[in-house]
Model the fold of this input.
Amino acid sequence: MREQVVCKTTDIQPGQMMESVFGKQDVLVCRTPDGDFYAFRNQCTHQGAPLHKGMMCGATTEQSEPGEYQYCHRGEIIRCPWHGREFDIKNDGRMLANPDKKLPSFKVRVENENVIVYK
Amino acid sequence: MPKQRIPLVDTDIHERVQYEELLQYLDEPFKHYITNCHWIQEKHMPYTQPSVAGVDRADAVVPDGRPAGSDLAFMQEQLLDDIGHEFGILTGALDPSPSSMHGWYEMAAALASAYNDWQIDKWLDQDERLYGSVHVAAQDRDEAVKEIERVGDHPKMVQVLLPIDDIMWGDPYYHPIFEAAEKHDLMIGMHHNEPPVYYGKWPRYFIEWHTLIPTAHMKQVTNMIFNGVFDKFPNLGLMMIEGGFTFIPHLMWKMDQQFRDLRHEVPWLKRKPSDIMKDQVRFCTQPSEELNKKDFMSLIDQMGTDEMICFATDYPHWDYDSPHRALPNLDPELKQKIYSENARNFYPKIPKSGGEIT
Done:
């Protein structure tokens, strides 16, 4: 099994993300507000923007009615720095506007203070 | 993996000025109004741009914190050197946009002159790849002509910039602007600003306005053609910037059909509208719409020419099109035309010889 320490748990506060590498691949490591870690390919599926330059935020949801916003998933959505496409961290990196598309993801585990990405 | 470099002629790059940089190029009393009276240009849009960082790519902010597009060195690093640009055409930021001021045209004209001097000084003279646009306060036609006469023969000024706003520029009243442009081998570049494109008002949501921008571009092309601009000024060309290109076949068919029925009203047209478009109107590709190759080639086929569209990035704005990813993978000859040759053939002042795309 291929695995690699991509950062320390203390490198990322809940609600933040950072870029790292896994082998030769650029990886985006995200820590959701509940403290969990996730890792995705650090490149938007649309035009290849570096996702770590975007933001982790919430989302207006499809439960919203015309003229009335519902906002949740705070800190669980990655938004692309270019075209603003939204990817749901806790739903396997699926794009909100088109859930058939998703960011390629990596398995993550935490041992001691190491965040380890593995295949 | 290193990226393939693309010898691109980029037809839409937004450099950005900050008001304090313009002061040295402004006379009084205009300097006073900015320095002491805190003048900023009027704003109209009721929304923000609901992306990550407003109008800009979130990663294009200058590392020292200045706004995206305001620093040549960073633009060189992030765009020109990284992509492999041969040439890029500066189209200004949206603020200030002298021709979009709805009053105080003296200030608009002064800003246009200051902006042109700043653009030449800080950008065109600093990077041989960059070409520029002449900013004018076109609401005041005669002042606009004076400004074109003043800077239009600069070897790196390639077009006069007109906003797509609430003025239809094909009206004969504005033809002296086109006469002056043609005299200096300048084309006309039209870029939307923050106009109401929706029956004189704003739609409720930004996404509606942004979706409908091409309709404003269609209005201007139709207006310029049926007002006879292109037969009157046969060496003039019009570049439509940031309206996309997928509406082109519809507009050609519609204008030709209308011309067959209603030519009587516009007898000064010597060619059918679609032929005028093919000869004298060009369209920037951005913002592209994720066409696959089959659909893209079908569209080219419907246009009847592969020489009407020119690649643009729109850097540093959020709806930037990546030269590597925005269009489908095209055959080398067509790629060469869209990424380089079409723009070279359109702008007389851009050097004709170029590198091959590998």
Observations:
- Chain B has 13 helices and eight strands.
